[in-house]
Amino acid sequence: MCRITAVISERPAASVDLLCGGPLSLLSQAGAVEGRFQDDGWGVGYFSGGKPAVTKSHRPARLQRAAFRAAAAKAVSRVTVAHLRDASNPAGLPRASLLGRQNTQPFAAGGLLFAHNGTLYIKDEIRSLLGKYAARLKGTNDSEVLFWQAVKMLDAYGSPGLALEMALDEIRTVWLSCRGKYPGREGPYKGLNLFLASADSLTVLCHAPRSKPLGALLTPGWEYGRVAWRREPGRVIFSSEPAGGGAWKRMNDPEVCSARLRRGKIELGFKRITL
């Protein structure tokens, strides 16, 4: 599963401390544990003039530290989403087809940034319901299908929080009719931690059920799929695991958090989801 750190700030700022500035930073997580390297690409997304911009590479961040640091420093923005990729392959595709810049996150389109941590097993079924949005897919991975599903739901419902909630509902509903095609699978996904951002908002769905809990990379006792968050003066941070020292809070599972800038201040709202 991938690693993500996202920040919403009251003023434009570069989140260098969280992305590459310390022993728990996102960059430190990239090569922290042998056998669990986040080696399938990286990206730093931000907003410039209200439009999304992304610096990406399909190479391992741990081998491109200078480039990653430069991208983090360049991302001066009120909203930033950074991603390390550990590619999933629910369809059993040749590994070469999973890699490449088009499959690297965050994804950007229509004023939005999006990143995903987990695996969607029923990618083809959800893709078949994308309608006009299917034509905008560029890669082969399940996370991009989730991005355009979120865009579809946002266009339908208007609210980013409700969009992620309805995306989860659609996936679970579709699973009822196709689960027979996936013997041995307990559900339609292994992790649906979704990060959806605009120039003035950041919305996060935390949902990563596991029958056998896996520990975080650099924080002993932290569950691998549990989104960490905290409010600091002038900013709120969400991360796949703590990206710095000090106290962090755990999001509930499943839960959606909506953070939005209003009159220069960050408003936070949490909603528990009943499955």
What's this model, at a glance?
The protein has helices at 16-20, 26-30, 65-74, 95-98, 123-127, 142-157, 160-178, and strands at 3-13, 42-48, 51-57, 77-84, 107-109, 112-120, 189-198, 201-206, 228-232, 235-239, 249-250, 255-262, 265-272. With 275 residues, the protein is an alpha+beta fold. The protein has one domain: Aminohydrolase, N-terminal nucleophile (Ntn) domain (Glutamine Phosphoribosylpyrophosphate, subunit 1, domain 1), CATH 3.60.20.
Question: What would you note in describing this structure?
Answer:
The chain is of the alpha+beta class and 275 residues long. It contains 7 helices and 13 strands. The chain has helices at 16-20, 26-30, 65-74, 95-98, 123-127, 142-157, 160-178, and strands spanning 3-13, 42-48, 51-57, 77-84, 107-109, 112-120, 189-198, 201-206, 228-232, 235-239, 249-250, 255-262, 265-272. Strand 12 and strand 13 form a beta hairpin. Helix 6 packs across helix 7 (160-178). The longest helix has 19 residues, at 160-178.
